[in-house]
Design the sequence.
């Protein structure tokens, strides 16, 4: 089916940064044409009137622990260290009993549904468990695509390592169904040379990316200083581990020398500003990373560390947090939208497929409904205020239409793929039953 979006104010995020009224033609899952002139309709075209809409590329959520969404809002008022070590949230029983296989499945379904309704078309899921779970079912049912970061442990609570064969089977299932497996490596407290190098060899063998939580908290930084008299980035560089396959999440504590190493190695960063505020991690040097040319993506993190999965809120938070520390011109609205779109695509090596509205790319894009008091007025003078409306005024609930790989998944703000009421009822039932 062809989809024709007419007269829509289009923010392409193409390198030239075009913002203009365009018609967009989608065919066979690709963006076939983006034109300032009208595109001729054909019989059977699905035509969308874009005259009160803004089109933006599909958003990329670069870091979410989706299998704990049923724990939304719990563990509040605690740092990550306190959650992990000194509270009821750190009880193994909590993870083991409350987050059983069914709860994890519906956690992922709920997170994916929330994400796609809010304009996310690609999500990087970092589940705590993957072994034995149906990894691709939530993608298939909700209609979103993404990556799954596969923990090197079969069970993260016992530390039991995965067998290479079963690990590769899971990775190849994801690849076969059009998703991206990513190899997980430990955060700083788990740094062991042999393990890190083995996991890098797995990423090379699968020809995929490798993810780790990197330089997120002061206690993790201190653990590397005490053990190796180094920073995590310097330690990994010296090990020969850093390269263009590596995605570091958070990257809060990166000094100038670390950033130079990241730049030289081609490694990338995903920042989660709301989560880092909520658990008091700190403020990452995002404006420096951006100006130094290191790919930066944006993530919400999981439900214990954010409570919501709204990338519009995240874009605003990213921008404002940088400005508190470094001034009003430190991170622009364009920089912030870039992190949620093309920057995220660069992080996952998908910049030729996703992240901008360009002919030939996958047709994953979002239409925002501008018929809202908080999205009025739209200024057209000079650069106008379009980018500010998107990054500072819009909310996830302003998303009208979401198209993923040429398929309409959300229309008129309604998720078309699943019974949302039934999903919410199931999640509430599980929460009532499990969290006692
Ligand atoms: Zn995380």
Sequence:
């Amino acid at each position: 089916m062809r989809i024709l979006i007419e007269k829509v104010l289009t923010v392409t995020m193409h390198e030239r940064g075009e913002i203009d009224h365009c018609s967009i033609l989608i065919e066979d899952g690709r963006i076939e044409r983006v034109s300032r002139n009208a595109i001729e309709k054909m019989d059977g075209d699905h035509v969308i009137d874009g005259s009160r809409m803004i089109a933006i590329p599909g958003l990329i959520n670069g870091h979410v622990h989706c299998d704990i969404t049923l724990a939304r809002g719990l563990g509040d008022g605690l740092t990550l260290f306190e959650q992990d070590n000194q509270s009821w949230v750190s009880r193994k029983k909590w993870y083991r009993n409350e987050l059983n296989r069914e709860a994890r499945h519906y956690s992922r379904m709920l997170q994916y549904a929330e994400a796609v309704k809010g304009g996310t078309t690609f999500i990087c899921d970092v589940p705590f468990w993957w072994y034995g779970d149906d990894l691709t079912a939530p993608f298939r049912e909700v209609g979103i695509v993404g990556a799954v970061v596969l923990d090197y442990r079969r069970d993260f609570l016992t530390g039991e390592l995965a067998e290479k064969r079963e690990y590769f089977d899971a990775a190849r299932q994801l690849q076969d169904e059009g998703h991206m497996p990513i190899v997980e490596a430990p955060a700083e407290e788990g740094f062991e040379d042999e393990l890190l190098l083995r996991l890098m060899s797995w990423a090379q063998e699968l020809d995929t990316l490798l993810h780790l939580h990197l330089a997120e908290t002061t206690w993790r930084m201190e653990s590397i200083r005490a053990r190796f008299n180094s920073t995590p980035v310097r330690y990994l560089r010296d090990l020969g581990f850093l390269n263009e396959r590596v995605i570091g999440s958070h990257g809060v504590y990166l000094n100038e020398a670390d950033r130079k190493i990241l730049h030289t190695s081609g490694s990338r960063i995903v920042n989660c500003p709301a989560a880092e505020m909520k658990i008091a991690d700190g403020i990452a040097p995002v404006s420096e990373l951006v100006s130094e040319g290191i790919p930066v993506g944006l993530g919400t993190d999981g439900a214990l560390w954010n409570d919501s999965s709204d990338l519009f809120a995240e874009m605003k938070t990213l921008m404002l947090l940088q400005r508190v520390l470094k001034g009003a011109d430190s991170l622009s609205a364009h920089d912030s939208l870039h992190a949620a779109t093309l920057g995220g695509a660069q992080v996952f090596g998908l910049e030729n497929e996703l992240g901008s509205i360009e002919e030939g790319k996958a047709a994953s894009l979002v239409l925002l409904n501008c018929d809202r008091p908080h999205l009025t007025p739209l200024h057209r003078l000079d650069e106008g205020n379009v980018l500010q409306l998107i990054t500072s005024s819009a909310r996830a609930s302003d998303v009208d239409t979401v198209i993923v790989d040429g398929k309409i998944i959300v229309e008129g703000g309604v998720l078309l793929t699943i019974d949302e009421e039934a999903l919410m009822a199931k999640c509430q039932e599980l929460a009532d039953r499990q969290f006692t």
Remarks:
- The chain has two domains: 3-58+357-415, 59-347.
- The mean pLDDT is 94.
- The radius of gyration is 21 Å.
- The CA atoms of residues 201 and 207 lie 9 Å apart.
